Amino acid sequence: MAAGGEASSSVELGFAERAAPARLVSSQFPSKVGGRPAWLSLQLPGPELLRCGGCAQPLLFLLQVYAPRGRAFHRALLLFCCALPACSSRRFAVFRSQLGRTNDFYPADPPPEPGSEPGPASSPGPRLCCVCGASGPKSCSRCRRAHYCGKEHQSADWRAGHRAECGRPGDAGGSLLSLNILFPELELVMELEDSEGQKLEDLTECLESLSAADSDCVTEALDEQELEAMAKHETKEDRIFAHFKRRIALAPDQVLRYCRGGSPLWVSGENIPLDIDIPNCSCGAMREFEFQVMPQLLNQLKVDRLGESLDWGTLVVYTCEQSCDHGNEYSPEFLWKQDFSADQL
Ligand SMILES: [Zn+2]
Ligand SMILES: [Zn+2]
Ligand SMILES: [Zn+2]
Ligand SMILES: [Zn+2]
Prior knowledge:
By secondary structure, the protein is an alpha+beta fold.
């Protein structure tokens, strides 16, 4: 199911589940985690745009959300991150791609079932880095069948096994190294959050604005014990984190929350962006909250093998509220990373 629909305060939750790889390719318009990107527009961003602003190494694909919207018949948001243990800045990047129903890459009718023949003949598709799935303008000078985003993945792949495989029939490079560096590939399955979630939200707002005793609004939703537990959290910081934990407890496995135009669920009272911290889109329009990645995703990514390199409280993605049209190009959007505050760890 696609995320999105019309703006409302209801939240869709994303759960990461195993799925047949055939469901997770571009022509199926998936929401997914890990593996290689299922590019929407096949006019890919250049490899230079998919480099960490800190260490200049290639970014890895983290996840994508398929979220059509109005005139954007197809619309996808793709998130990339730097996962290098040695990198001190570990940047993220988000790109939005959208296409009309009639477009240069996909038939106007619903996609064929996974595994069936693709629709009307499409062009051969862009050259992809056989390691990370980004645009791959460089090729192995010996076999010319293995393509790379840049010299890093080329030389790493050479060492990881392409040296031995190069030129063998059927080999196009990348296989061994990819297994080691890509995040595990999973489908993102979206479901509406239980209405208890909104109740909890309303209640917390009410408590926030409440002077201790007069509690009209605090009626059925929580029993006394729970109320006391909430009241005990004295600092604002505690209350925010307690609220976070309560809301998450309704569906502990959620790895993503989608609520375009809504509000993110903060993990901490620290480092919450002000409006001026969120830059406008290149078209001049404001950006609005669209989805956030939850810390539970880290458990599913097996990041330990990356040497504790990746961590977040939540990753909050803001997108152009006009969803402005850039044809086949990918437009950068904005990501805000919030960490757990020190005393929550
Ligand atoms: Zn980096
Ligand atoms: Zn690459
Ligand atoms: Zn080769
Ligand atoms: Zn815009």
